[in-house]
Design brief:
Distance between the termini: 7 Å
Helix content: 25-40%
Number of strands: 24
Number of helices: 12
Low-confidence stretches: none
Structural class: alpha/beta
Radius of gyration: 21 Å
Shape: globular
Strand order of the largest sheet: 22-23-1-24
Length: about 425
């Protein structure tokens, strides 16, 4: 499938979706705690439903509604676990792998064709070093894990994905010895690790930080029943804000902003550097965008999901936008650096692709084109927003939005966008 995008202007009010990363973490931790633990304002998307199903296969009894889940009974480590298909969700398979290592039986975890290209070996090596037996397909899914891990000292490289570290942290308190974790090299996506620790704290487990982003100690503990309220998703908010910067007039974005750490919150600072005026409180955001943005150099090492929404702002920038230190974006659902460079040049953006980022510059000749999002939800949404600015564009794979923002197309059209399925 694909969508035809006409030049569009949007106006009105829109509610920002709930945070996908916190929804994943809260579902896993509520499932480990049980006893009627509740997660409110959940994002129910393809990825988070994969997490719910994984927890059910681990033995948790979960009830769902439109905006919340309740875990009646927790994950049962004596449950006979069938194969777990985590679909397209990297967060699901990585955190579930740590939980699988707590079981004494062999558990197989797999996913779709895209997920089977994503690296798992650093996590599998770490789990092996503390007592698991792991196999994989050249370091990628499908994988098998047989525990039970006992805990102890373990190290893992930080330059692939913070999800590996989050997986180890979440399973650590349920090991016999706890885990003393050392992160080797520079950790990417640091705020996502902060998010994991903050969510664990809400469920009664403490993580001792010896050296931030380098060494952590987690003693044996139990997860306690809790109610967790998921804040808005700044990754989705960044896309909505980019849509307003490029195509909006008098748009109000509503939602529970909360005070939990989110790395993508830095997009607010980026917009201000670009010359955008931000008006923001705990429940809503409005912006005023200049005729032309300033451009600049931006380090996205801690916020790789901002690569798509920031890249398309080059359409309105008077000077180049340079994005650096985001090599790990090549290991997302797709190689986002390569695809953005390949596709946005079609509509007239001048692009220099570097190993760890991009330099993007607008031109006087912007033209409509067919853009292939490679079934990547964040690329599809960013390309749609760019298409609304340029006009006469076709974007492939609209169904990909089910991963993080199922109502994206209908909500954009409600505000005045002209996005038509074909």
């Amino acid at each position: 499938m694909s969508c035809k995008i006409e030049k569009s202007s949007i106006t009105g009010e829109i509610i920002c979706p709930a945070n996908k990363s916190y929804t994943h973490r809260a579902i896993f931790l509520a499932s480990l705690a049980g006893n009627n633990s509740k997660v409110e304002n959940v994002l129910l998307s393809a990825d988070t439903r994969a997490t719910i199903e994984a927890c059910r296969k681990f033995g948790a009894e979960i009830e769902t509604s439109n905006s919340s889940i309740i875990v009646k009974n927790p994950i049962n480590l004596s449950t006979k676990v069938p194969e777990i298909n985590t679909e397209n969700s990297g967060t699901t398979i990585r955190i579930a792998s740590g939980i699988a290592s707590l079981f004494s039986q062999e558990i197989t975890l797999t996913g779709d064709a895209s997920l089977q290209k994503r690296p798992m070996q650093p996590l599998l090596d770490a789990l092996t070093n503390i007592g698991a037996h792991c196999t994989s397909t050249n370091g990628n899914p499908p994988i098998t894990i047989k525990g039970k891990i006992t805990g102890g000292n373990v190290s893992i490289p930080g330059n692939f994905s913070s999800q590996f570290i989050s997986s180890l942290l979440i399973c650590a308190p349920l090991t016999d010895k706890g885990i003393n974790l050392t992160i080797e090299g520079n950790l990417v996506s640091k705020p996502y690790l902060d998010a994991t620790i903050a969510t664990m704290r809400k469920f009664g487990v403490s993580v001792q930080t010896s050296i931030p982003y380098k060494r952590y100690n987690i003693s044996p503990q139990i997860y306690n029943s809790a109610t967790f309220v998921v804040p808005i998703d700044f990754s989705s908010l960044a896309l909505l804000l980019s849509a307003v910067v490029l195509n909006g007039k008098d748009v109000t974005i509503k939602g529970n902003i909360g005070n939990l750490p989110q790395g993508d919150e830095v997009f607010i600072d980026i917009l201000e550097q670009l010359g955008v005026t931000i008006m923001m409180d705990d429940e809503q955001i409005k912006i005023e965008s200049p005729e032309k943005l300033r451009g600049g150099k931006f380090d996205l090492s801690n916020s790789p999901d901002l690569l798509p929404p920031l890249s398309i702002l080059a359409l309105k920038s008077s000077t180049p936008i340079e994005i650096v230190n985001v090599k790990h974006a090549r290991l997302k659902e797709t190689d986002r650096i390569a695809i953005i460079a390949r596709e946005l040049v079609k509509i007239g953006i001048k692009i220099q692709e570097n190993e760890d980022g991009l330099v993007l510059e607008s031109s006087e000749k912007l033209v409509g084109a067919k853009l292939n999002s490679e079934n990547d939800h964040r690329l599809f949404m960013a390309f749609c927003i760019a298409g609304m600015f340029v006009g006469d564009c076709i974007i492939t794979d609209p169904e990909s939005v089910n991963v993080s923002y199922p109502d994206f197309i209908s909500e954009m059209n409600r505000l005045g966008a002209k996005i038509h399925s074909q």
